[in-house]
Design a protein that fits this description.
CATH class of the largest domain: Alpha Beta
CATH topology of the largest domain: Rossmann fold
Number of strands: 18
Distance between the termini: 32 Å
Number of domains: 4
CATH superfamily of the largest domain: NADH-ubiquinone oxidoreductase 51kDa subunit
Helix content: 25-40%
Mean pLDDT: 96
Largest sheet: 5 strands, mixed
Strand content: 15-25%
Shape: globular
Number of helices: 17
């Protein structure tokens, strides 16, 4: 077999959720004890991974087999929540049909089970070092859509040019759609006849997502497009200016410790105590306290669930992480950590979380529409991943075919190639993006 890592690099495969870490860079071939297919999808309201498992289980299982065999992992675990019995049964049946020796992990309905540090501990009992990555304990984690893209890259020779996106929230019926990368959010909503007047758009999930413009495009990491009215608590939380967040951190924190006692990383034994970081906004607590903000996973439990004052330790941590990064300050991974003895009693039930953030009424299945939505124009960003931006290799006026490389990562740099998601003409090129328009005689 060809070098799997090279195939995935050429195809532009990155983590389909989160920050978009290039998948090829995870594929270490020494000391891998366990490979985990993460189908937990713990963000409330999102259904992309679950819909893939329901509609393309064979592709996911075969893609996972390719990865497990390539790195020589001793165990392969497919993880999802135990409450999705239909999906669990289907995956178990598919694994049996292939005769693969994969394990199925049925996790509890707590948030954020899908965080890779949390999932590694819950499924195999290993604590990833504070500030470290799963590779440090012999584990690799990829989400289900990433694994689906691995299958398509290897078996079908297709690069990453489309994305599954759950459209939900205050929209009536939620759905999951397949869209070309670079399609604007407003065009998705128009194709689905969804009126977004007076509503705010969130890209990603309600806990970890961000507010976006209808003009913004889908990227390789877009997992959801959620709509809420302007007065919804999630919108108020995300839209508050950082100056307001910091002022309230300095003046309103009552040091109750709830943010710390329910922090998933603290409960794993990491040296992260958000209540101390909040105090450091008003008093000199030393660099070690502020530096611990680098351990924050930004899951949002502290701000959305824990704090009785409505403060945002998450946003404070994001602010500090940016400052520390500018100063070149890093956290040295600390091994030999152990979970807190009361961890199991402090996990956050997803149903209670949804009640707290007022989204339970929007919790619906989002069935997959199998026909890909059509876009006549796409705006494709050059940086949709961790690492350096891809460099355009096309010029204005060029004709490109769907799947053709339009930008490459410089040799020796971490990143991901970018491909044309539609066939058409190059309308605009910059270091940041490429715009393609479908030509009139092109009906593909």
């Amino acid at each position: 077999m060809e070098d799997l890592a090279l195939i995935l690099k050429e195809a532009g495969v990155v983590g389909a959720g989160g920050a978009g870490f290039p998948t090829y860079a995870k594929l270490k071939r020494d000391g891998i004890k366990v490979y985990i297919a993460n189908g937990v999808e713990c963000e409330p309201l999102l259904w992309t991974n679950k819909e893939l498992l329901l509609n393309a289980p064979h592709m996911v299982i075969e893609g996972f087999k390719l990865l497990v065999d390539f790195v020589g992992a001793e165990r392969g675990i497919i993880a999802l929540k135990g409450k999705y019995k239909e999906i669990l049964d289907l995956i178990a049946k598919t694994v049996r049909e292939y005769g693969y020796n994969f394990e199925i992990f049925a996790g509890s309905d707590h948030y954020p089970l899908g965080d890779e540090h949390v999932l590694v501990y819950e499924s195999v009992g290993r604590v990833v070092p504070a500030g470290g990555i799963p590779l440090m304990v012999g584990a690799i984690v990829n989400n289900v859509e990433t694994i689906y893209n691995v299958y398509r890259a290897v078996v079908e020779r297709k690069p990453v040019i489309e994305k599954l996106v759950t459209v939900g929230g205050d929209v009536g019926d939620s759905v999951t759609v397949i869209v070309p990368i670079g399609m604007k959010f407003k065009e998705i909503l128009s194709a689905l006849n969804i009126d977004y007047e007076g509503k705010v758009l969130i890209e990603g999930g309600v806990m970890t997502g961000k507010i976006v413009s209808p003009e913004d495009p889908v990227t390789k990491t877009t997992g959801g497009l959620l709509l809420f009215k302007e007065g919804h608590p999630a919108i108020a939380r995300m839209s508050a200016p950082i100056s307001y967040i910091l002022k309230r951190a300095r003046t309103c924190c009552i040091q109750c410790r709830y943010c710390t006692d329910q922090c998933p990383r603290y409960l794993l034994g990491h040296d992260l105590e958000p209540h101390k970081i909040m105090m450091s906004m008003a008093f000199d607590m030393g660099m070690s306290v502020r530096k611990s903000a680098l351990l924050c996973s930004e899951c949002g439990v502290c701000e959305a669930y824990s704090c009785p004052q409505g403060l945002s330790p998450k946003r404070v941590n994001q602010y500090l992480k940016a400052k520390l990064s500018q100063e070149g300050i890093k956290y040295t991974p600390q091994p030999n950590v152990a979970p807190r003895i009361d961890r199991d009693y402090r996990k956050v039930p997803t149903q209670r979380l949804m009640d707290r953030i007022d989204i339970k009424r929007f919790d619906k299945k989002a069935p997959l529409i199998k026909e890909k939505l059509r876009a006549d124009e796409v705006t494709i960003l050059m940086k949709q991943h961790i690492g350096v931006p891809a460099v355009p290799v096309v010029s204005v006026g060029d004709h490109v075919e769907e799947g053709e490389v339009i930008a490459k990562v410089p040799e020796g740099s971490l990143g991901a190639n970018v491909h044309a998601s539609i066939s058409g003409k190059v309308e605009f090129v910059s270091n940041a993006l490429v715009v393609l328009r479908r030509e009139r005689n092109n009906h593909g």
